[in-house]
Structures are given as C-alpha cells and as structure tokens.
Amino acid sequence: MRFDIITVLPGLLDSPFAHSILQRAQKKGLAEIVVHNLRDYATNKHKSVDDYPFGGGSGMVMTIEPFALCIEKLKAERQYDEVIFLTPDGVTLNQSVANQLSIKQNVILLCGHYKGIDQRIRDLFVTREISIGDYVLSGGELPAAVLVDAIVRLIPGVLSDETSALSDSFQDDLLDAPVYTRPADWNGHKVPDILLSGNTPEIEKWRFEQAVERTKERRPDLLK
Ligand code: ADE
Fold it and tell me: The domain 169-223 is classified under which CATH number: 1.10.1270.20, 3.40.50.150, 2.40.10.350, 1.10.10.10?
C-alpha cells in the first residue's frame, strides 16, 4: 500500500516512519510512504502556501493552488483510492475505519495547518475527512502518522504473527485481557494461577472473561 503525505512540515514525519513496525513494513515492500513538501508546489515568489481569510477573521488559510498542483501531479502518475484530509471535524478514527482503509492500494493524506484549508480543496479533491479525536493539534502531521500506523499494522505480512493484529483490542469490540510475563512472583505479587496451568482452553476462557469484564468497566459503549 502506498501513502503520499502532503505537508508543509515534512521533517515532522521523518521519525515516526523510521522505526520498528513501520520501518520494517517499508523494507519488506508492504508499505511505501512518500512525504511531499507542499512548499515545493507554491508558485509565488515567496513560496507562501497560506493567505488571509476572505471576510476577515483571525488566522491564515492554506491556499488551493499548491495542494491542487501536488494532488494533480500524483493523480497523473497513478490511481488513488482516497484523498484523506486530517481534521478535527472529520469522522473519528476507530478500528473499523482503519480496517476499511487497510485494503486500499494508494491513498493521499493532506495535512492542514493554521486556521484551516480553503474549503474548495475539501470540495474538489477530498474523499474522506478523518479526526483522531476530540482535541485540536497544531497540524495534521501527527494525525497522519497515527492513521498510517493504525493501517499499516493491518496489512497482511507486516506483523510477524499475522493473528496478532486480529487479536488487538477493538478488533472484536473488546479490550484486551491483562498480560503477564516472568517472574511469576515479583515480591509477592503473583501472576494468576490459571496462566501457569498449561490448560489452554481454560486460559482462553479466562482471557475472554477478563476482556469482557475490562470492557464493561472501561468502555461499556463497545458492548452493543
Ligand atoms: N488536525 C488538528 N487536530 C486534529 C485532530 N484531532 N485530528 C485530525 N487532524 C487534526
């Protein structure tokens, strides 16, 4: 799967994709992440990508021209399934949205800044608007990194044990059961006996019950 991310701060995205699972996914050729500097598509002398809002008001608005030029260049090179704008007024990201997107081939992600982006970019190019939660960040770069991470780990072959993404919290609308590792007794704080029993069916039953209990307690909204 290929991601083209359009941003005024490409440096912000250097690190999130250069480690761990996202780095390995790229090395294996399962994900391609290309970051484009929006300023390279600015046609004016000062390479500015924003301007004052029509009608007045505070803050600057990102202009349509550089986004349009970058998106059109990319679209001339390959077909895109989605053009996604990261914005706090989008649909809130959840596991179901990540699952839907993980079967796409090529997506463009637009990162906004300042007071927002010219509405015509949204009207003409954007196919989906996604928020990562009900809070406002300084720009769309961190949300884009969050979205890419949530999607890439679902691509078959990215995780070494393919079942492990399927058993993630939320995949079955349940939170995960608690997990433990060595030592079995740390200063008198013991691991539940059942996990040391070797009785796999009983362990699975216990894990399911714990997951239901935790979900009831913390996220009753997930239990429909
Ligand atoms: N840009 C700024 N805040 C955001 C959020 N919460 N989700 C997505 N994009 C954003």
Answer: 1.10.1270.20
